[in-house]
Amino acid sequence: MENVIDIVCDEGVRSRIVIGSAQEEFAGLLPEQVSRVIIITDAKVHVNNLAFINAYDHIVIGQGESSKTFVKIEEVYRQLLAMGADRSTFLVGMGGGIVTDITGFVASTYMRGVRFGFLPTTLLAQVDASIGGKNGVNLDGYKNIIGTFNQPEFVLCAPDLLGSLSDRDFRAGLAEVVKTAIIGDPELFALTERHTFEEIRNDKALLREIIVRSIRVKMAIVEHDQREHGERRKLNLGHTFAHAMEKSVSTLSHGEAVAVGIVVICQAAARQGLLAAETAERIRRTIEHLGLPTECPADFRQLLTYIRADKKREGNRIYLVLPHAIGACEVTPTPLEAMDELFIVPAAPRSDEAPASSPSASETESTAEA
């Protein structure tokens, strides 16, 4: 299986993704024509104190979504100024998706732009967050509402860095793997369906194949639609509801919210007759088999309120990604007024009641079907 994936986007922008050992590959990927290298990382990665990065200057940021705000971004700008960083400085984001988002955004805006690369240290970041050139920060609880499209010069995906992840964080990455498989790789889906969580976590060859397959699906799309005018919207599968759930339920991680969002959208597609009901159930069962949540923990009407402010909304429509089969999805512009009908499912009548012809709001179940 290949070690290097070279990407040329539709605007001629180039990026290189390397799958290999962090210690062996990192120094060789750094460009020679830079005045200095500064690594942006978080407290957790910094504590692990990986020896091969100790030769470089560091900026350590906080953990969690609370770090993706303008207040925190300004702190990074100030540290760069204090360190004398100029336009020939090269930034490296080393950490999970929050670190790569912040690093990409800072690199895109500091002194109108400096060069940068990523060394993702979580599965979610290796298969999704660090790949594709999206860099975003949050505003008033809305995820990634401010951001840039800017490709890193390199992304070094090192499976050897994933050993210290908690099972919960590892599972969060598998949610994005399942999403990617539904979008464009039935064999990748079969791998997640066929193997247990423990097998995926501990079999190095299997994990590497899953990472490479996920990257190839995503980059095949990004190459032709870097700025998300069409095909790239497919990569938002499950994310419309995921972002709303993250705003509503603070205990959910991003990957867990994506897992539930995938189940919700697949069930909606099945109700519309776009996806076979047995396929929707197969997807739900696989997500559950990997140890991820499948039940929506929030009130759907509240979620729809948040969705109406989603960055994917255009006018009175929002672009939903609806699966037709495993490996085939369609981007569907959906009027906001149709969302209630699509996602709010009337409660089944109790056995001692006759069905009402037009249920009131109080008689309506505010969750998706299980």
Topology:
Elements: E1 4-8, E2 14-19, H1 22-29, E3 36-42, H2 43-48, E4 57-61, H3 70-82, E5 89-95, H4 97-109, E6 115-120, H5 123-129, E7 134-139, E8 142-149, E9 154-157, H6 167-184, H7 186-194, H8 197-202, H9 204-222, H10 239-248, H11 254-271, H12 277-289, H13 300-307, E10 313-314, E11 317-325, E12 328-335, H14 339-343
Parallel strand pairs: 2-9, 3-4, 3-5, 5-6
Antiparallel strand pairs: 1-2, 7-8, 10-11, 11-12
Helix pairs in contact: 4-5, 5-6, 5-9, 6-7, 6-9, 6-11, 10-11, 10-13, 11-12
Features:
370 residues, alpha/beta, Rossmann fold, 2 domains, four-stranded parallel beta sheet, three-stranded mixed beta sheet, 14 helices
Describe the protein in words.
With 370 residues, this protein is an alpha/beta fold. The protein has two domains: 4-163, Rossmann fold; 166-370, Dehydroquinate synthase-like - alpha domain (Dehydroquinate synthase-like, alpha domain), CATH 1.20.1090.10. Helix content is 41%, strand content 20%. It contains 14 helices and twelve strands. The chain has helices at residues 22-29, 43-48, 70-82, 97-109, 123-129, 167-184, 186-194, 197-202, 204-222, 239-248, 254-271, 277-289, 300-307, 339-343, and strands spanning 4-8, 14-19, 36-42, 57-61, 89-95, 115-120, 134-139, 142-149, 154-157, 313-314, 317-325, 328-335. The strands form four sheets. A four-stranded parallel β-sheet has the order 4-3-5-6. A three-stranded mixed β-sheet has the order 1-2-9, sandwiched between helices. Helix 10 (239-248) packs across helix 11 and helix 11 packs antiparallel against helix 12. It is globular. The chain starts with a strand and ends in a 27-residue tail after the last helix. Residues 59-171 form the 3-dehydroquinate synthase N-terminal domain. It is found in: Cytoplasm. Pathway: Metabolic intermediate biosynthesis; chorismate biosynthesis; chorismate from D-erythrose 4-phosphate and phosphoenolpyruvate: step 2/7. Residues 349-370 are annotated as: Disordered.
